[in-house]
Structures
1.
Amino acid sequence: MTSNLLLQLSYLIGSITFIVGLKQLSSPDSARKGNLVAAFGMGLAILGTILFHTHDGAPIGNIPWILAAMALGTVVGWLMAMKVKMTAMPQMVSFFNGMGGACAAIISIVEFHSHPHGTPGYLLVVFLGLIIGTVSFSGSIIAYGKLDEKIKDITGKLLTYINLLLLVLILAALTAAVIAPEIMGESAIWVLLALSALYGVLFVMPIGGADMPVVISLLNSFTGMAAAFGGFLYDNPVMLTGGILVGSAGTILTILMCTAMNRSLLNVIIGSFGGGGSAAGSGVKGDQVVKEINLTDTAILCAYAGKVTIVPGYGLAVAQAQHICHELEKKLEDKGVEVNFAIHPVAGRMPGHMNVLLAEADVPYPKLIEMEDINPQMNSTDVVIVVGANDVVNPAAENDPSSPIYGMPVLKVWEAKNVIVLKRSMRAGYAGIENELFFHPKTKMLFGDAKEMLGKLVGELKDL
């Protein structure tokens, strides 16, 4: 009785720490502590399970194997986390998320073979955990490959029809396996596994680069839901609470990002937006004039400005320029310039990518201003420096109905007095469409590697 009480107490504390930790993740200032709090709760729940869990009166077995697996996972996870570059963080998030989905799917397979003739309700939970977990795993691995530029987009209406057919087959097989399990017998688990894995692959294949943050968030919510089904199977409140929190948070984040792009989730999934490299519908037609600016003029313009806004994008992450960007901010503030950072919800390649990047460089969180708060301030801004951002500052979102991003809320940097775009070249952004901002009368291009050019700009400011 005491052991069961201690087990339930460890689960209760674990569930509470998950909630507290998730709350703390809402701010970069407390996110690190939130991770540690949630990790402590998970560790306590695992320890409680090993020490106090019993089945039919017998304690848990195979403890050496469990500890060995935990040690192996800890070492591999630690090495991956320590070695990963900030530019590869989205890939690592996708990979780890896929592993969570795979674990949920394996739980369903094991439970099905332990109780192949369970009640319809039990079988429904098992199969739903398998389907969602498998889709999350295979989809996340494809997302990892696409983010790492090892897998190319595959688009076409035929693929959309194939995906719809697979969905119908999955639903039909699920219905048969639950209502009339004698039809497929124990092969049902493998049929659903194969169909789900194939759907996960083909579902992510046509998703273009600009929509990858939404897809990562969606797949993350899938993993949470699959883990919650595992909690139902084991009657484990910690798994259930953790799964529900991850699933609901991922779903809310997905909806928020779709809103930020002015698109429905269905449109993201079947729209195949962001693939390819076509500039069609960009709104840039005929000969356009591109004005360049040198480092000295840039330094003078910024040093004598009253307010400077820096817009970070994926190019900042690629150049690993977040630290020098923070140094630029401090140097400008030493000269009496007000500096802040404009953050678009889908900038980068995963949710919150820019927040994480700048937090790593110790940029104060109050300086990171979200799109809806910074846009009204643009017309009072003297200089906007766009570092590696592209699609999230494209005026075509507002003035070109033929553009694929038309209607998507963007940072209205063109309303500032001066715009300086720091890029390596005139190449289109991740969405594959050309940026009208490059040709705007207020825009001047500063070509070069972001880290190198920002470093030289800091040097120029020191000499002023």
2.
Amino acid sequence: MKNKIIAVLSAVVFVCVFSVFAQAQNTLSEGFEAGGKTAYAAANVTLGSGSWNLDEALTGNSASDRKTGLWSARVRNTGKVTMNFNVASAGTVTIQHGVYGSDGSSTWELWQSANSGASWAKVGSTVTTSSTSLATASFTVNTSAAVRFEIRKISGGTNRINLDNITATTYGGGGGGSSSVHLTMGNPSNAVTNISSPTNYLMEKPQYALSYHNGNNIPNWVSWHLDSSWLGSTPRQDDFRADTSLPAGWYQVGSTSYSGSGYDRGHMCPSADRTASVADNSATFLMTNMIPQAPTNNQVTWANLENYSRSLVTAGNELYIISGGQGVSGYINNGNVAVPTNTWKVIIVLPAGTNDVSRVTSATRTIAVFMPNNNSVVSDWKQYRVSVDYVESMTGYDFFSNVGDTVENQIESVVDTQ
């Protein structure tokens, strides 16, 4: 049983903050659907989000342009796509990208300016575009200051790339706050986006939030909100890839890093929980959302719980889910990736609604499981139900800390029997 005394004083404040930020919001969303630039020569063009400068770039709508909708940006040589305006803040920036037609691969970078374009700083790592279908690159910015962005193509010569669906989430600012809906119920390890905290590094994406362990090179935990708005008909993208938004110099687990290990690339936030759009589904295939999972654990027991969770949503509920691995049983990928000894998940179940933290009561259903990460697990996930308190005792995390302490103590002490 954890010590919750400190949480008593902060719970009321956090309830207020997180009820205001009940849904993640975008401070920038640009899909190039306005079109309007047909030549590569540098010029400004007014798009849906504001004025942009496209240099060695245009808006393309041919059959060879990779895009969602009718238009995307097409960039050649060392072209640039630059905002002529600022947004008030930025949390996570996502950009879809693909090669134009049958062109070869190219590399590009995201840059940011906090002084209206007077100077620029690179964000995250260089991205390689090699796929003929749109992939999604994510960058962690997390600034409460006004900022603008520039995308710079840096290699590939006349090889062209398409860029589409550029988004930036609103950043919640200081004081430990976050605008992410996925942290509505709390930040289990008080993770922060600071390279001085490499084993508890917070990454907030539009689709989920996570604490990353640079060393084990897997997430400590991944947290996400699930309601009907996240579910649709988008097919599984299967675009496993390194997360280039990790800080420069950190090891990036790649799409083939688990190959030959006997372990699956086990999603924490499942692909099937993010089917409302291609961007959402693609984001679940970042390797920062994966842990090595034994095939039976991943494909059978874990999958059965994931399917059950979605059935609760279709029945009219919304869920707050956190999952991860516990312990280290060994390493794969030449010692670069830790294999968890166990897997765990905790869930709050609420009827669909608003002001979610304030609606959690002592009668609110919680589900918690803790199971071995091996191929001997039985298929029935219910056999591994425990209390949330038990998972806390095994991981050292403090789940649902934004809920009032009396209610939190009650809902975390019971073992689900439904």
